[in-house]
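$ fold --in a.seq
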Amino acid sequence: MIVPPLVPTDWIRVQFPGWPLAIYRELATHLRQLGMQTEVFLRTTPDFNYLLDQVESLGFTVPKERQVRDHTAGILQYYIDRYWEAPISKGQNPSILIGTEVIPWKRGFDWQALF
């Protein structure tokens, strides 16, 4: 079992099974351009496996302004639409982590409702 890293309570974490580190970093860069803090959390499993993604999740601060939240929702939706089925995701769906709550992420997820 993977123990998720501790992040501040005003952060959201998203997990995208199979996504390479480069896509996580690109998404983090877009969110930082909106003024949010971001952090890519690497997997902490002791064994390296080339067939698994090496990133646990991407954490970011919750935007406070409505316009930034709307823009954030659009960016997240863009990445999901573009990279939904990563080559090695093996049918695992992305998930959203808020505190200890895990929310399954399906196509058509309403990001505005989350913020």
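$ fold --in b.seq
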Amino acid sequence: MRRTRDNRIGDVGELQLKVLDLLGELGEATVHGLLERFAEDARPRYTTVLTVLQGLERKGLVRHRTIDRTHVFEPTGQARQVRPKLLRDVVAKVFGGSPAALVAALLDVEEVTPEVVAELQALLAAHPEPGEGDGS
């Protein structure tokens, strides 16, 4: 399952995000445990997943402990910050820092059904106004 630079967002690649997602769901896992969660036709090699985990560990996003010579990996607290950081980077670099420009672009390229509009309205209604609830 070869990935190119085009499949990378910032400095975290598509497979790294998938592995982080799986670890987040499972809480902890071995390489074999992670491999079982991939669809058979999209399953990377053992060594590929191990290399991804080692890279994530170098970035401080996962850690491991050894049980009977088997590495058991788990996400660190920093792993939960990957998507928010990537999204902030995209908003800053691609949309000039404007979340509204991001939403407008999404609306231009995605099918917007009445259900999607209702979901977006509910999300906005549930989101506190700037300055509310943040102690300012």
